[in-house]
Specification:
This protein has helices at 116-125, 140-149, 156-173, 183-198, 215-226, 230-247, 252-258, 264-275, 279-289; strands spanning 3-6, 10-16, 29-30, 34-44, 48-49, 53-54, 59-66, 69-73, 76-80, 85-89, 93-98, 102-111, 131-132. It has 292 residues and is an alpha+beta fold. The chain folds into two domains: 3-173, Jelly Rolls (Sandwich), CATH 2.60.120.10; 183-289, Orthogonal Bundle (Arc Repressor Mutant, subunit A). Strands 1, 2, 3, 4, 7, 10, 12 and 13 form an eight-stranded antiparallel sheet that branches. β8 (69-73) and β9 (76-80) form a beta hairpin.
C-alpha cells in the first residue's frame, strides 16, 4: 500500500521499492516485461530541492502536473513545464528542484530482457533532450499510480504491464516538438487540473460545466482523451483521499465529513462500491499491515 510522507510543505504518496543509497531492490512489483522500482505522487508547497543521486533503475519518468521543475542528468539542466515529462537513465547523476509550488508523478522501472530494445530506443530518443511535451495524453501515469493505491484488483500485473508498455512506447513514437494543439484538449487538461485541485469541494461532476461545455459533451471529450469520464476521475480522486485518511487512522465519521458526505452511511456505501471494502475493514486491514 501507499506510504504517505507529510509535513507543512509537502505531501508524498508513493510505493518505493528501492534503497536509494545502495540501489538494492526491496520488494518490487513484477510484471512480464517490467520491474516497478517506484511509483509516486508528490506535492511541494513553496518549492523544494531534492538531493542529487545516482540513478539505479533503467529509466525514471517524472511528469509535471502543476508548476515547473528543473531536472538534471550529469549536470545538464532542463526546464520541465506543466504537462511535460523528464526521462533519466541508469548510471546518471540525477537531480530535481523547483522554485515554486509543484505537483508531479514519478515512475521508475527496470526493463526485462525481452523488452530491452525499448530501453535502447528510449535512450536514443532522449539522447539530446530529455524533456517530452504532452508526455501522457491518455492519462496512463495517474492510472498506474491508482493501481497501487487501491487493493490489488484482478489482472493487476497484466494491466500494469500494458499501461507501462503503452506509456513508454508512445514516448518513443511521439515527436519531440508536439505540444497539445487542440483547444479542446487544452480545455480538458484544465478540467483535470481543476479536479485535482478542488476534488474535495466539488459536490457533483455536473459543476464542471462551468468550463463552457454541456456535461454530456464534457464527458465524451474527457473520456476520449483520458479514458475515464470526469465523474469517474473525480470519484477516484476522492476515494484515493479517503484511503489515505483511513490509512492514517482517522474514523469513518471524520473521513465522511472531510469528503462532504451527508452521513457516514452514505460515504461507507460509496467507498465499498469503489474499493470492495467497508471503510472500517479497510482501516483495520491497514492497521494490521503496519502493526498498529
Amino acid at each position: 500500500m501507499a506510504r504517505i510522507y507529510r509535513d507543512k510543505r509537502s505531501v508524498v504518496v508513493q510505493n518505493a521499492f528501492l534503497d536509494f543509497r545502495t540501489g538494492a531492490l526491496l520488494s518490487p512489483a513484477q510484471t512480464e516485461q517490467f520491474t516497478v522500482v517506484q511509483v509516486a505522487e508528490s506535492y511541494y508547497i513553496g518549492g523544494f530541492e531534492g538531493a542529487t543521486h545516482r540513478q539505479h533503475c533503467d529509466i525514471e519518468l517524472t511528469l509535471v502536473l502543476t508548476g515547473t521543475l528543473t531536472s538534471s542528468a550529469d549536470g545538464r539542466e532542463e526546464r520541465v513545464e506543466k504537462g511535460s515529462a523528464y526521462f533519466s537513465f541508469r548510471g546518471e547523476m540525477h537531480g530535481i528542484c523547483a522554485k515554486g509550488s509543484c505537483r508531479f508523478l514519478t515512475l521508475a522501472v527496470n526493463i526485462k530482457e525481452r523488452m530491452r530494445p525499448l530501453l535502447s530506443a528510449l535512450a536514443s530518443r532522449f539522447a539530446e533532450r530529455r524533456v517530452l511535451a504532452c508526455a501522457d495524453p491518455l492519462g496512463l501515469l495517474p492510472r498506474i499510480l491508482s493501481e497501487f493505491s487501491a487493493e490489488r484488483r484482478p489482472f493487476f500485473e497484466q494491466n500494469l504491464d500494458a499501461m507501462i508498455g503503452s506509456l513508454l512506447i508512445s514516448s518513443v513514437r511521439t515527436e519531440q516538438a508536439s505540444p497539445i494543439s487542440s483547444p479542446c484538449e487544452d480545455r480538458m487538461a484544465e478540467v483535470m487540473n481543476y479536479i485535482d485541485c478542488h476534488y474535495l469541494s466539488i459536490c457533483a461532476a455536473e459543476e464542471l460545466s462551468r468550463f463552457g461545455y454541456s456535461y454530456h459533451y464534457l464527458c465524451e471529450r474527457f473520456k476520449e482523451i483520458y479514458g475515464v469520464t470526469p465523474g469517474a476521475y473525480l470519484l477516484s480522486r476522492r476515494m484515493d483521499h479517503a484511503r489515505r485518511l483511513l490509512s492514517e487512522g482517522q474514523s469513518v465519521s471524520a473521513v465522511a465529513q472531510a469528503l462532504g458526505y451527508s452521513s457516514p452511511y452514505n460515504f461507507s456505501r460509496a467507498f465499498k462500491r469503489h474499493t470492495g471494502y467497508a471503510p472500517s475493514q479497510y482501516r483495520a486491514k491497514n492497521e494490521n499491515a503496519h502493526g498498529m
